[in-house]
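Troubleshooting log. The previous structure file for this entry was overwritten by mistake, so regenerating from the original sequence record. Sequence copied from the archived sheet and checked twice against the printout by T.R.
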Amino acid sequence: MARVEDSPWAISVAQIASRAGQSKSVDADFPAPSGIGDNIVGIKEGAPVHVTGQFDSIVDGLIFTGRLVAPFVSECTRCLKPIDEDWPVDVTVFFPYESAADKNTARGGKGKGGKAAKDEEVEILAGEDESEDTYPLLENGAFADIEAMIRDTLVESLPLQPLCKPDCKGLCSQCGVDLNENPDHHHESTDIRFAGLAALKAQLEAEQGK
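Regenerated output below.
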């Protein structure tokens, strides 16, 4: 069975756990988990994600505040040029300590007054809306596994329509020329209302030239 400490995303926080007011800095690379986007817009599995920030210990858990920087791979939705750049995202998440009630529920025990653990589960589920950016600590608070944090944070931040630059001009709709490199490019257009007259004119000129 794999040990928690062997996970590439596990960070030891035992030295600050349950000691409010303590901090632990993080400045390291972690492999990008799977499932962050796709081959068109995303971050490749295993690519180095640089994580900087710190864990701050409070009474009921650890707060991590920092920044993730990942190599973003995509293509511009206007000019189709490949995009390969660092993608920075700020993050603040909470790692709560496991309470005695949580442990009792996990063991299938009962609460005070003979209430079944199921009643306690209802209370826990009722607070789920407040724990959207919450991740569990492992091994009785000794480790914080940031795999899910990295995945969730980067997935939510990926652009739906990536651009190589904010003012990208895109491609010519008629011939596909890159308008960023040829800003003066244009096509002579003929009003379709006079297309028939133009064809007749060309025919008459051809007949006169015979």
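The mean pLDDT is 81. Archived copy saved in two places this time.
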